[in-house]
Amino acid sequence: MSSDLALPTIPELLAAFGAEVTARRAIADVHDGSLYDIAAGIGAILWARMAGRDQDLFRVCYFDSATDSDLEERIQAFGGAARVTSSRGTGTAVIRRSTTAGGSGTLWAGTRIAVTGVGSLKPRMYRISQDTAMGAVLSATITVEAEEAGTGASINTSQLSTPRLVWADEVWDSTWTIDSLTCADGTDRETDPVYLARYRQDKIDRRRGYAKAITDACLEAGASHVALFESDFIPPDTGINRCFVGDAAFESTHYLINACRAAVDSARVAGCDLTVFGMTKSLCSFDLTLRMWDDPGAYNQDKIRIEATRAVQRYFGGQSNPYVYRFDGVRGELARSIPDLQDVIVNSGPSDTSISSILDGASLPHLYTSANAISITLQGPQ
Questions:
Q1: How confident is the model at residue 88, as a pLDDT?
Q2: According to the model, what pLDDT value does residue 2 have?
Q3: How confident is the model at residue 1 (pLDDT cuts 50, 70, 90)?
Q4: How far is CA 126 from the centre of its chain?
Q5: What is the fold of 206-281?
Q6: What integer is the mean pLDDT of 289-313?
Q7: pLDDT number for residue 211
Q8: Residue-wise pLDDT tens digits, 81-128
């Protein structure tokens, strides 16, 4: 199927249907909202989807067989991004000399610097990236780049234990020494399979009804945090139907919620009842007794309390979605942080939650805690 062949749009399919009906029955009512229009709309949507599906199936044949520049041309012809090419890492080097007797001169682009003490027998090579005119100065910062393109060039010699930096090529004043060198990593050229997979994933991400399309629509409308829930949590299953949005502080204003409700109309699938709700922060307080395997006096109690407090905070900070709470998760963090812990007694704390319980409300609680909200008491074994 030619890439220049435009697929029929829904309005074009509706117009074709209306023309066919009126050709057979001149007085037929095919205006927007008529019975004919409603019936034709369903078919137009399905035909448009089938045409797009068939086109993608034909294109797959060419994408799977194309390589190198042919693959790049084909992907970019269909709106895909350019391939990630290899590049050299760039950075700077600080050079010094003890006297200006050598006068002024130029450090030429391509002059190499060798760095040893990087954990391998072979030195890493860097080079001056542009001609640099030097006056009668004792120190200077020059721009450098990795000699070879690709990853593996990242370095900061100030963090190495025994680095040695020397000129691999001559410079006009041999008294110049290299104090330090920092360089970022370069990039490796994207292989054909990785490039093709990225293009296909991007196509999926841009489809209506998919998580990324919905998330991106909310982010563009002003949300900083977006949480999506599919309806298989609460039957019947009709895809993603609950969206919760919040600002940078996990709070939601009416303006933000309304803006996101309007935005998701362009990203959701017709027939899927996607509703946007807000978020609210919910502080979790704890009063815990830690039962140790030995008498509390045998331990550094202040240190244990600090470690326990950090463990509870880590439970909330470490979750990718801190919306569902389980005390067993807190207990696990405490056990990993305090080897001599025998048991944890909960004097007071939040109750375990479930997806169903948190979706009952009009806003999604974002769970968090703080050091001031955690009370720790130590107790001996029983």
A1: 95
A2: 45
A3: very low
A4: 31
A5: GMP Synthetase; Chain A, domain 3 (3.30.300)
A6: 92
A7: 86
A8: 999 999 999 999 999 999 999 999 999 999 999 999 887 778 999 999
Overall average pLDDT of the 20-40 stretch? 80
Residue with tokens 């954990």: 119
Nearest to 83 by CA among 95, 71, 94: 71
Measured between alpha carbons, how far is 62 from 41 in angstroms, rounded to an integer? Answer: 32
CA-CA distance, 350 to 287, in Å (whole number)?
Answer: 10
Beta strands 240-246 and 275-283 are: parallel
Q: Average of pLDDT values for 220-246? A: 78
